[in-house]
Amino acid sequence: xxxxxxxxxxxxxxxxxxxxxxxxxxxxxxxxxxxxxxxxxxxxxxxxxxxxxxxxxxxxxxxxxxxxxxxxxxxxxxxxxxxxxxxxxxxxxxxxxxxxxxxxxxxxxxxxxxxxxxxxxxxxxxxxxxxxxxxxxxxxxxxxxxxxxxxxxxxxxxxxxxxxxxxxxxxxxxxxxxxxxxxxxxxxxxxxxxxxxxxxxxxxxxxxxxxxxxxxxxxxxxxxxxxxxxxxxxxxxxxxxxxxxxxxxxxxxxxxxxxxxxxxxxxxxxxxxxxxxxxxxxxxxxxxxxxxxxxxxxxxxxxxxxxxxxxxxxxxxxxxxxxxxxxxxxxxxxxxxxxxxxxxxxxxxxxxxxxxxxxxxxxxxxxxxxxxxxxxxxxxxxxxxxxxxxxxxxxxxxxxxxxxxxxxxxxxxxxxxxxxxxxxxxxxxxxxxxxxxxxxxxxxxxxxxxxxxxxxxxxxxxxxxxxxxxxxxxxxxxxxxxxxxxxxxxxxxxxxxxxxxxxxxxxxxxxxxxxxxxxxxxxxxxxxxxxxxxxxxxxxxxxxxxxxxxxxxxxxxxxxxxxxxxxxxxxxxxxxxxxxxxxxxxxxxxxxxxxxxxxxxxxxxxxxxxxxxxx
Length: 615
Ligand code: GTP
Ligand code: SPV
Ligand code: MN
Fold this sequence. Notes:
The chain is α+β, with helices and mostly antiparallel strands. The protein has 15 helices and 31 strands. Strands 1, 4, 5, 6, 7, 8, 9 and 10 form an eight-stranded mixed β-sheet that branches. Strands 14-12-13-25-29-26 form a six-stranded mixed β-sheet, with helices on both faces.
């Protein structure tokens, strides 16, 4: 228990805007939630300092050693608030069918009534922060505005890392409004659900056992209650940029996807742009910042989690990253696996949650070099390398500005984005799925995406290591009927020139040998997979046709200088017909969930696979 948070000095109840819609909403929320004060977030450095100082004072944050991690902070959550809560996440469309069959649903009015009950007085004793933000560029043709209201200073400073926000966003909204444009902005309401009675001391990580993460797709509104964790609370990220944006994308003919974006330059100077969808904690951040092991190849980063993709005037698919920071999985990150992420966070200005705190005021996690002799683990207990418990939660995270990334591609600042040459789907599978193979065409690629499977991870509450279908790595993020989502993907292929669309590939870094070890070394060596993909696109690399798609032909895949036997590579690339035959009933069962909403071409694709497998 620590002292009640002091009011930051810039807190001022005089609203710094005349925008009627925003003012009315802020007033309505304040009326309902009864905050002690209202703070309109400016996004200034002074404000960051005030807020982080206050968070240190309340015990939420510990300031890290400025010589090691300048302007950086450590925090530990309540152990009941460590990941996304998929079973508490709802798509409250007017019609239940529009949420089905993969989302939780409740009628919007019913949900609102229930949540108004939870929100009533929920900000008592707290500051209500009003955060004007934009996902993507402020200079975009149609800027994607939002306003998040939160009663968490932790969420406010995390939002400042992850999204473009503050006074200039508010000014732009007002400008466009004054110019008579119908400016759309997504109202996003968040509360940790932990009001403070008069004189009651705050806790380091306020939250509530009851949690709701709710999207209203028709209204384009977000209501979140009870959690301070990333994807549940930084509402610009999964709630807006994926769940709500996927609905906008359906209506407007574009794609909002759970994908990294990278730029790859060959030794000959040929540039390709790659987007890749892997489920949560399955390797997007690591691939996005990959340091190639093969000579002469270069990777630059554009995004590590979300891609918004639109068909450009040239008929190609152009992608932008709507985010402004990385919210990355800490465990496993080190100088070998992800040196660029290490360099990014070591520049400072970063927030660390649920990792271990060392005695010299640094952070540590499993997989990082040089374990400290002693540390405080994420639960606040003394920890040594001999301890039985993990020092860090498996879903512990760093939150760091993307602008600090030393390999950020210059195109990151271009509101038009980059034209995508290849889309990769991938998951975490011990068996069955080869290291890499190529789809036969866009529709087959959509089939591969729609049937993507992966073992569950610690990024969401629930069992870990269970194989589930995670279509396009979007299972927890599709904001509408998933059958319609598949149709939308199919239509993108139908309505556009196939020759100009990206080629689709499927990868699996996680296949195991009989002893349980990874068959493929992964990380920087994944550049070899990217090389094969680029050479396929340019018609240079040979492939063999198999029942599932095109797999590297012998000799076409570069393992020069890699300590890997041809037999191991063959095992990593193998298409085992028996394993695939076992996959078919699972795909059938998955497709049956969708009833008539499944585009029939996906059944046709499955029939084709069965025929090729001899079923
Ligand atoms: P979210 O932020 O949850 O969306 O996750 P992500 O897809 O960005 O995953 P990330 O890159 O953070 O990787 C998650 C875990 O997978 C980390 O512990 C990595 O060390 C591990 N990982 C990433 N790439 C590879 C790889 O090529 N091989 C192996 N074996 N592990 C990997
Ligand atoms: C994920 O779970 O896919 C993440 C982390 O990227 S969160 O922002 O919490 O969703
Ligand atoms: Mn993610």
